[in-house]
Amino acid sequence: MERDPDYGAFMDKFVLEPTSSAHDQPLHGLTFAVKDIFDVEGYVTGFGNPDWARTHSAATSTAPAVLAVLRGGATCVGKTIMDEMAYSINGENIHYGTPINPCAPDRVPGGSSSGSAVAVGAKIVDFSLGTDTGGSVRVPASYCGILGFRPSHDAVPSAGVIPMAQSFDTVGWFARDPVILSRVGHILLQSPVMDPIKPSQVIIAEDCFQLSNIPNDRLGQVLVKSVEKIYGGHIVKHTVLGDYVKEKVPSLKHFMSKEIKEQEYNIPSLAALSNAMRSLQRYEFKDNHGEWITSVKPELGPGIAERVWEAVRTTGENVDACPSVKTELHTALATLLQDFGILAIPTVPGPPPKLQADPTTLEIFRAKAFSLLSIAGVSGFCQVSIPLGMYDNLPVAVSLLAKQGSDAFLLNVVESLYGTLKEQVEITEK
């Protein structure tokens, strides 16, 4: 008899009872897990690597984000495996094992919040906490067929969370249900429950959807038809985002290499945006962890070791131009979306890659993925990844972005759209 996958094997199980047991608390009766990047008093924060765990003491306090959801009435049932030092979007960990993708067991679960996504996707918990620097909530959400929310930068306190690169680090969360996603969001964002506001426009980034190898009638059109049904077709607009970014973010010239210009498979301005993000990410990662890495010389898995040591050796070339890129992109997208506009893009350029795929074969996929992921990362805007069922037996997702500080608005839009999106997926699949 074939053994069921042990989805719980990637969790360090313990129980933290809610600090408020009142039945009227918004998260009463819900369970959650936390990525092993959050401090929990009395436990070593392992950061995905046994050498890190060995050289660090148990936390003396619990991260405010974890305390907030405990106060909201939820029960924590454990910590989850993550990619080493949060430096991957794959979700594979050679030390602790790779959490099994509940949608596609032969595919990666996505990282670096891999265990947190799988815990939700496998229905072990109702929601979970992760972090997203370069895509570490959005990617595993899309790969595991669940909702994942990356909030506006600095919207949720990151105290008690090991930093990866502070210019981009965010505390995000996963859920299977848009109502739970919203409830967790209102707790973490400390935002009042507000009446839903209709989007003023939903802008489809046509060139971004062309990056995806999922047919557009199964991706972009599902969203468009759902928006038309709920809000009316007049709010749907279309843009070529790469051209807009190229025009409005002149500082990208510092990151526009000859190689990028010659890439036929990518959008040059967004590839340059990704270059800028990863340059500053490497620089800040080195500042945070370079001394520990050079003194301990930790054992690191394939792919991650190369990225970590590349960061440690970085000279910070062009890093001085990164603040200008961030400011210009923020202004450009705020002008494009205005108060209640939404930008729609694919979360990632296709289905999850196979387990233990050759890193070189993944390079084009990674390059396109970071072009998409860097839009919210560099601008500081909020983004939600929404599952759109399965295509060729693999999970598909779309993303919505709203301007920085519009997190509660975006959560409400997801609640309004979700049911119609599911119906549209079913119609399309027939």
TrEMBL record:
> Which Gene3D superfamilies does its entry note?
Amidase signature (AS) domain (3.90.1300.10)
Q: Which GO terms describe its molecular function?
A: hydrolase activity, acting on carbon-nitrogen (but not peptide) bonds, in linear amides
Stretches that traverse the bilayer? none
Pfam families according to UniProt: Amidase
Source domain of life is: Eukaryota
Which InterPro entries does the record associate with it?
A: Amidase_CS, Amidase_dom, AS_sf
All residue ranges annotated as the Amidase domain in the record: 22-177
Q: Which family does it belong to?
A: Belongs to the amidase family.
Annotated PANTHER family: AMIDASE 1
Please report the name of this protein according to its UniProt entry. Answer: Amidase domain-containing protein
